[in-house]
Design goal:
The complex is a heterodimer of chains A (498) and B (95). Chain A is α/β, with parallel strands linked by helices. Chain A has 16 helices and eleven strands. Chain A has an eleven-stranded mixed sheet, with helices on both faces. In chain B, strand 1 and strand 2 (87-88) form a beta hairpin. Chain B is mostly helical. The longest helix of chain B is centred in the first third of the chain and has 18 residues, at 22-39. Classes of the chains: A alpha/beta (498), B mainly alpha (95). At the A-B interface, helix 10, helix 11, helix 12, helix 13 and helix 14 of A face helix 1 and helix 2 of B.
């Protein structure tokens, strides 16, 4: 068991691939090691200590059959892609055919996916192994994974703290070596914020870079599926495997632009922008220090910095919390208690009664809140002052970024103002919870790519945050220029490995 | 911009096909009012000449050939809670 933990601890996609090719281990062995790791760390009943609770469900039969196929291919001397045999965790709002997909909601407790999401089809075709489905805030609505109808997930760095949300399960699984990498989804920060809280890397691709077919829809003009991994390089590998135009998602776009930003010895005047609106008083000292350390590191590598302004930043939260619930209220209208669900012997006189009963019993408080809010901002008499207004503000926010990107190549910001907060700390006040996403939300409104990268060797040691809590920084890129932010991220990582 | 009261809340719940218990209503009203108060800051922005942004990055319409595709739907029919032949069975719609 101890050997297994050591073996899994620094296992990246590349290292795993090398190990497979060099016959140091088989895909089946590593898959089984991960299941052992999950049993030891994830389940509350396994030990006297609290379990992490990252996984809602394991897909052991699927995983072992996938691993076996890879092992057979190896013995037959077949060529293997880099993701062959790599054990992944998948957020439970992404569909895998024949497997339950609950979106952490009672309304989908018994729903079995009838098809594979496009990203899953792509991963299956390259031989990746799927370990299980991870926990999330119900219907991806939340910033802490506390809104799951089934269980909470604990931050592996401090079990009293949240892993972030809504992709908290995926981020925790990767951080605790219960998967090599994972898929999450990001609508207002739901990949980047948990990656930031758990100390792993999380990428939200440009809107349209990755197909949303098979992602349980929350807000269709904002949602994106993206990778979570331990390193920027792994994140890039997983991103390249899932990206691409898909006829089943008419908003998806084919793209593969070359990066302008080269490595350390060829940096041609790459300029990183620092938006003054993100470096505000609300940042706790630990976050400021961490970000300043990153800036110093990148300066030493030759990157230039420029102060910029994104003047409408503070209005992003309002714009988002009008647009997103509006779209979500429409997307969740389909959960009528008949589709996707088993009726629980409901004897009603009219069809309409089923809707009221099932929806009310099946949805949690936050989901109901957002459906009501969304319905309000779209209703007659309020549409213009809320929804239309929010869409205009969205345009202003996007224009801010477009202007800034004429002067800089990439933008650097914090991911959140504080490290992970305690479980239960913000559940009483929804607005307080929403405010934890102020640095991530504008990116979704503008449709830009952004990555959260853990700050290296940083110890948060103050009275408030005892012990070592991860802090990350965010890089925002131009549309479809994921390569730019990935290259800078890899450059930053390399500087700590040399 | 709006005040949300109990009557409006009940109307919205009706529209959203959600049954709210009495105990849920007062906390929900308080939360929603606090959120709506936050939204008031948007009134400060001059947006009369701004084009609303409705979508994500690529805002072009996409078409495909107008051809019917053969689709298998056994899995979907199997998942109907109640059925008759290949039809979904539900309680009466009319009052």
């Amino acid at each position: 068991m101890q050997n297994d933990n050591v073996k899994l601890k620094n296992l990246t996609i590349k290292k795993f691939h090398q190990g497979l090719l060099n016959k140091e281990f088989s895909a089946t062995e590593i898959t089984e090691s991960f299941f052992d790791s999950i049993e030891e760390k994830d389940n509350p009943s396994a030990n006297s200590k609290q379990g992490i609770g990252a996984y809602l469900r394991l897909t052991k039969n699927l995983a072992l059959s996938q691993a076996k196929e890879v092992d057979i291919a190896i013995t037959q001397g077949k060529n293997l892609g880099i993701l062959a045999g790599v054990p992944l965790a998948i957020k439970d709002n992404i569909l895998i055919e024949g497997q339950p997909a609950t979106a952490a909601s009672k309304n989908l407790e018994n729903y079995q996916a009838a098809y594979d999401a496009t990203v899953i089809k792509k991963l299956k075709s390259v031989g990746a192994v799927i370990l299980g489905k991870t926990n999330l805030d119900e219907f991806a609505m939340g910033s802490s994974t506390e809104n799951s109808a089934f269980q909470i997930t604990r931050n592996p760095n401090d079990l009293e703290r949240v892993p972030g949300g809504s992709s908290g399960g995926s981020a925790a699984a990767v951080a605790a070596d219960m998967a090599i990498a994972a898929l999450g989804s990001d609508t207002g920060g739901s990949i980047r914020q948990p990656a930031n809280f758990c100390g792993v890397v999380g990428l939200k691709p440009t809107y349209g870079a990755v197909s949303r077919y098979g992602l349980i829809a929350m807000a269709s003009s904002l949602d994106q599926i993206g990778p979570i991994a331990k390193t920027v390089e792994d994140t890039e590998i997983l991103f390249n495997a899932i990206r691409g135009k898909d006829p089943m998602d008419s908003t998806s776009v084919e793209s593969n632009p070359k990066s302008k930003i080269q490595n350390k010895f060829q940096i041609p005047n790459s300029i990183i922008g620092l938006p003054e609106e993100y470096f505000i008083e609300g940042l706790v000292e630990e976050t400021s220090k961490a970000i300043n350390g990153v800036i110093e590191n990148l300066k030493n590598q030759g990157f230039k910095f420029k102060k910029i302004s994104l003047p409408h930043t503070k209005y992003a939260l309002s714009s988002y919390y009008i647009i997103m619930p509006a779209e979500a209220s429409a997307n969740l209208a389909r959960y009528d208690g008949i589709r996707y669900a088993q009726l629980k012997n409901l004897k009603t006189e009219r069809l309409k009664d089923i809707y009221f009963k099932q929806r009310s019993q099946g949805f949690g408080t936050e989901v109901k809140r957002r459906i009501i809010l969304g319905t309000f901002v779209l209703s007659s008499g309020y549409y213009d002052s809320y929804y239309l207004k929010a869409q205009k503000v969205r345009r202003l926010i996007k224009d801010d970024f477009d202007k800034a990107f004429k002067e800089v190549d990439v933008i650097l910001t914090p991911v959140s103002s504080t490290p992970a907060f305690k479980i239960g700390e913000k559940t009483d006040n929804p607005l307080k919870m929403y405010l934890s996403d102020i640095f991530t939300i504008p990116v979704n409104l503008a449709g830009l790519p952004a990555i959260s990268i853990p700050v290296k060797k940083y110890q948060v040691s103050s009275i408030k945050y005892q012990g070592e809590l991860p802090i990350g920084f965010q890089l925002i890129g131009k549309p479809f220029q994921e390569t730019d932010i990935l290259e800078i991220g890899k450059s930053y990582e390399k500087s700590y490995n040399s | 911009m709006g005040i949300i009261d109990k009557k409006i809340l009940e109307y919205l719940a009706e529209l959203g096909r959600i049954e709210l218990a009495e105990s849920e209503k007062s906390k929900l009203l308080k939360d929603l009012q606090e959120i709506l108060n936050h939204f008031q800051e948007l009134e400060k922005l001059e947006t009369s000449n701004i084009e609303p942004m409705s979508g994500g990055t690529s805002q072009q319409n996409i078409f495909r050939a107008d051809e019917a595709k053969e689709e298998k739907n056994e899995k979907l029919i199997e998942s109907f809670p109640e059925k008759e032949n290949s039809f979904l069975k539900i309680p009466p719609v009319f009052e």
